[in-house]
Amino acid sequence: MEVPILKQGAFLIATFQAALSDADLNQLRMGLVQQVVKFRSRAVIVDVTAMDVMDSFASRTLREIAHMIRLRGAETVIVGIQPEVAFAMVQLGLTLEGVATALDLEEGLAYLNEKFKITNRG
Amino acid sequence: MSAGEIRVEINSDQDIVIARQKGRVMANELGFSSGDATLIATAISELARNIVSYARSGEIKLKGINGSNGVGIMVVASDAGPGIIDIRQALRDGFSTSGSLGLGLPGVRRLMDEFEITSQPGKGTMVAVKKWRQ
Asked: Strand (E) positions, A1-122?
């Protein structure tokens, strides 16, 4: 399954689908880091609004993506974790420590714009 | 209300997605809240992942059940894999032999209402979990 990655100025926006398999997630991890290099992006927003299940593998992959992107000198913001998904993650003992999160895409963009103090004109 | 019984063969990571989707559909049909359906789907995902990681193949059985607690769903994950030598250790947070986070079983236990595991080294593992509708 293809995950659309949108370039928005200095940022990349990746929109995750509901039915991502482990293989999809692994592919995405590499794809995102390569795009960050290619476009010299300063930040990546990963939008997980559509994900109805965040299990141990998915949250570990998100953490790994964020850490790899940080090693490139860029930042990752995870946006759109649904309340029910957040509840299940807490029950499972899963955390996204050290990874920025925001309510939704709009909040994520606002956070990054404030942080980088740039006008993101695409 | 019987949603019957569904079996999902687990042979690859793609089957993990199929199993949890079917589990969510059944939970919805049984009248679970969408929050509980998410917990059930997440538990199924972890159980199916254990099958792929440790036994390579197995099956997930989903069944609507009736009990003194009312309507519920039962999920049985079984495989003929290597089995678990020390179940108590496997149920402890942070323990893993497959390089994963090791949160699978204790996490699943917290997501569901009832949890039962039987395993024989060399023969396989069966995990049966239930959740009752609120």
From this structure: 5-8, 11-15, 43-47, 75-79, 100-102
